[in-house]
Amino acid sequence: MTELGLRLAVSFVQILAEMSIVMFTVAVMTLAERKVLGWMQDRMGPMEVGPYGILQPLADGVKLFFKEDIVPAGANKAMFALAPMLTMVVSMIGFAVIPFGPDMTLDIGGLTIKPFVVADINIGILYILAIASIGAYGIILGGWSSNSKYSLLGGLRSAAQVISYELNVGLAIVGVLLLSGSLSLVEITEAQAGGFWHWFVWGARPDGFFPIHTQVFAFVVFVIAGVAETNRIPFDLPEAESELVAGFFTEYSGMKFAFFVSAEYASMVLVSCVAAALFLGGWNAPYPGTIFEYIGFQQLAWIEHIVWFAAKVYFFLFMFIWLRATLPRLRYDQLMRFGWKVLLPIALANIIITALTVYFFPRG
Amino acid sequence: MKALLDNLKAQFPDAILATRVDAARAETSVSVAAARLLDIARYLHDAPEAAFDHLTDICSVDYPEDQMRFEVVYHLHSLPLQQRLRLKARIAEEDPAIASVTGIWKGANFLEREVYDMMGIRFSGHPDLRRILLPEDYAEGYPLRKDFPAEGRGWRSQFDFIPRFDEAPMDVVESEISEETKDTFRTEPGTPGPGRKEELLLNMGPQHPSTHGVLRVVLMLDGERVVKATPDLGYLHRGVEKLAEGLTYMQMIPHTDRLDYVCAMSNNYAYVRAVEKLLEITVPIRAEYVRTIVAEMQRIIGHLFWLGTQALDIGAMTVFFWTFREREVLLDMFEKLCGARLTLNYYRIGGVDSDFTPELVQRMRAFLDIFPEKVKEYDSLIASNRIWLGRTKNVALLSAEDAINFGCTGPVLRGSGVAYDIRKAEPYGVYDKVEWEVPVGKNGDTYDRYWIRMEEMRQSARIIAQCLDQLPEGPIMAEAPQYIPPPKELVMRDMESLIHHFIIYTQGIKPPKAETYCSTEAPKGELGFFIVSDGSPRPYRLKIRSPSFVHMGAFDHMARGYLISDVITIFGTYDVVMGECDR
Amino acid sequence: MTFKAWIRTITFYELVVGMKATMSHLLHYKPITMQYPHEKRALPDNYRGMLSLLRYDDGTEKCVGCDLCEAACPSRVIRVVSAEVPGEPTKRYSKEYYMDMTRCLFCGLCVDACPVDALGMTREYEWSVYDKRQLHLNKEQLLAIGDRSFPVREKQLELQHPNVAFFNVAFKHLPQKPD
């Protein structure tokens, strides 16, 4: 009994820590997006709240918290309230299987726990794919239950978009799975240890440096499909503000709106984490081993690992903002055509080529 | 023109009531019998020696004292022969009706609706004769009739948009538009549609992020595809034309600022030119140069504004801020020039308000030096971007025939491959003294119109650079003491000047009894002012031919079959400004 | 499609060019916007802002109550009630002077119209109020705006120009017509 209690307590603390890190990143992202967009557009971004506006997320949060919660006439109230929660929950629980740091174990009162991953389950990546598709339900429900045509159109666009691009995400990952031979994100990351060329985006074999199993096409497909999955420009059709006002969350206000927005940012973080773990070697540094190891602080190597992971994730997050500053929005039919006629064949070809190379040049 | 008039008289001996050639203003008008109007219009459109393929404007004038009270004025324009003709038909007061010319010029649809809305003249044979600018339930009559008070009669819409708190709230709203109301937006009433009854009626605007103001369009959608688009105009209707009838000619200038508020200079220019044509004033050469420079600056500003908003509509938000950066530079110059940034009130009848100082010349040169770089910067974001090309190429195609038939002008017409630019065809200002080219598109799609406006910005820069080089010294106001107030320094020094000053400001200027139409190439298209003067200091009738309004007439034609996303693109590609559209 | 174009397509060449452009703006960050209430633009002298009534350097009002501004105004902002200057039957002044700034177009025609330059457009533009009625200004308020915006005042009109002496028949304190 005490063991179960302890296990629960430890898990709870881990979840809390992870949630706060994610929510903090989301808050940073809301500010960073506005700041970076501003800088790219020759303006300053938010400057009023706190020095250089760094407390803006706080002000936004307070404002949204105290805003009136409007439910449109004729809306399905239960579904209308459920949709933002569903979206939020789904984008948060995906983080359970993300390894933030190295595969260490700690002994706490006879329990063996992994401090940097909440649940190291052996089907981690499948779990993320499954959870991510549930996220579409939140958007569709939100669009449908609002009793607004703009929301409905946004929801419908989202349904089609998520289905099409989910497929590409899944197929882009297959190559990585062939290389690592595991579905656990921890094991996938470990398989990429040994430096820059051993990351799956280059895919050198453990004993060499020639990028023979390169997944660079899968990586590009994954990133594009990931942008589409998170409804970001240039694929932000479900919420295209110049066409559908705000798409599926046109009718939302107050905290429900905040839920949708933070869920969007959280799923950006999630996609970035997955991309970092699958293709860019997760916590592995671009050189073999760690610097701390060389200078003799082996027990502190995890700090370096975490820093590398965070750096990769923030690189992707910056990419999201950068794309938003640069690109126009696709049209609906172009989006579909691109997903099915361009990305899908590339992903399929990548699977075949990877399978062949792995068969003829097996890894280790 | 003489031959044409003789031909007309020979063809319709009983219908041509009078012809009048105004040699001084180079205008020809023909009065015809209202009953034969349709035949004459068809002849003028079809006959090769007439070829009036472009219906510029339809206007109506009210003469309450006359037996035939209303006059409907058609401004025709022949693009191949480069000639204009004014066709006038009188109709009586009781049950005023005249044949509709929508079968000949499709662009007449909106113009005739406007005449019906404002003057109450019915057009028999019009497919959809409803009020266009005023609310559909407007119960006060027809505002441009002379017996309608300028202040209105205190009518308020009966539309109950405020919820009643004493009634129980409705839980389920069936639909916001009743079945009968829906029918007005259906394709052709009575005819079966594409066989499906699953169309979605989507109300876009007037509160919508990208309808460029308060434009409302009722879209009938099949999935996301537009089956029918019905623009609903008039949310910004201020009755400027009625207002003008109570203002002196000079007082009207600041009101023209508010038409196309993005390009106030162009409106000033168009209006002032029309009044000068009426008064037959020639403007000093330096003023002409300054006017041309400022008008081209305004064109650059207008096109920068358009580029930013169109890119923003398509989702590229950075372009918007970058274009506004350059726009600010030019607006700062305007501020230095005339003290205001947006509502400029810079042009005066007979000249301009203040001189283009050497400091401004220098600043303008500095701007022209960096401007090509900046345009390159916008191009780096969108010019060859595959998403941008995908969103603009083959979207909202408009063939040259349709563009002419709908009365389109400006970049919309040139995008369809018709090289018609008023600055070349009927040069004014100093456009004939500088070298520049008219960019012309090929396919008539959104991309061509985008390309044309980009090219026009470069050409405008070219015009300004040449004008700055040639800028002569001299006065900036014409000498015409009965029309133009004396210079301010003389007013309290010189008795003559003081008297003229008082007379012009208290009584206004009294133009000859005449009527004139003058068109100017505004950034959006042909902006024309038709002034009927009865010799009093206030215009008897002032009609504004606004390009945005005419272009909206082609909206349904262009939007059908495209997606919702393209509807937004079409708003952008017209460069529609509601202040000008609704007037 | 040429080989070069094909390479450009698969490497997203033109998108990369665009991303480079935005990145260069991030790296050479030079904002063109301003933190408006904290910093303000320098406005040119001829800025057409809030209207005001002016005084001569001896403190007398310039306005002679001639109503030209009222006649020139395109949106009927101005209302002038003119009266004789008490004790000086040849002079007039505006007894009351109202401006309804809610209607003003800031076109400057009244300033152009005024024969004695009694109206001026200031560089004030922060005139947002909670109550519209506060924008209905009377003569004292307009003079106060003029006083704070135009510290340097002109001489009396009669003293500005020698011509006045030729018209002067009644005023002993003014330049007299030479014999």
Explain what you see.
The complex is a heterotrimer of chains A (364), B (583) and C (179). Chain A is mainly α and 364 residues long. Chain A has one domain. Helices cover 62% and strands 2% of the residues of chain A. Chain B is of the alpha+beta class and 583 residues long. In chain B, the strands form 5 sheets. Chain B has a 5-stranded mixed sheet. Chain B has a 3-stranded antiparallel sheet with strand order 8-9-10. A 3-stranded antiparallel sheet of chain B has the order 13-14-15. In chain B, helix 10 packs antiparallel against helix 15. Chain C has a domain of 115 residues: Alpha-Beta Plaits, CATH 3.30.70. Chain C has 7 helices and 5 strands, in the order ααβαββαββααα. In chain C, strands 2-3-5 form a 3-stranded antiparallel sheet. The longest helix of chain C has 15 residues. The chains are: A mainly alpha (364), B alpha+beta (583), C alpha+beta (179).
CATH topology of the domain at 51-165 in chain C: Alpha-Beta Plaits
What is the distance, rounded to the nearest whole angstrom, between the alpha carbons of the first and last residues of chain C? 96 Å
| Number of H- or I-type helical stretches of chain C | 7
Most extensive interface: B-C, 37 and 35 residues
Write the CATH architecture name of the domain at 51-165 in chain C: 2-Layer Sandwich
Number of helices, where a helix is a run of at least 4 consecutive DSSP H or I residues of chain B: 21
Note the overall shape of chain B.
Answer: globular
* Order of adjacent strands in the largest pleated sheet of chain B: 1-2-5-4-3
Q: What summary fits the major beta sheet of chain B?
A: 5 strands, mixed
Mean pLDDT of chain B: 84
Largest beta sheet: strand ordering of chain C: 2-3-5
Q: Are there runs of chain C of 5+ residues with pLDDT below 50, and where?
A: none
Distance between the termini of chain B: 33 Å
Classification by helices and strands of chain B: alpha+beta
Produce a short descriptive summary:
The complex is a heterotrimer of chains A (364), B (583) and C (179). Chain B is of the alpha+beta class and 583 residues long. Chain B has helices at 2-11, 37-46, 108-119, 179-183, 240-244, 252-257, 264-279, 285-314, 317-338, 358-382, 386-392, 400-405, 410-415, 422-425, 446-470, 488-491, 495-507, 547-553, 555-559, 564-574, 578-582, and strands spanning 16-22, 27-33, 54-62, 70-78, 83-91, 97-99, 122-124, 200-204, 216-222, 225-232, 347-348, 351-352, 514-522, 525-533, 541-545.
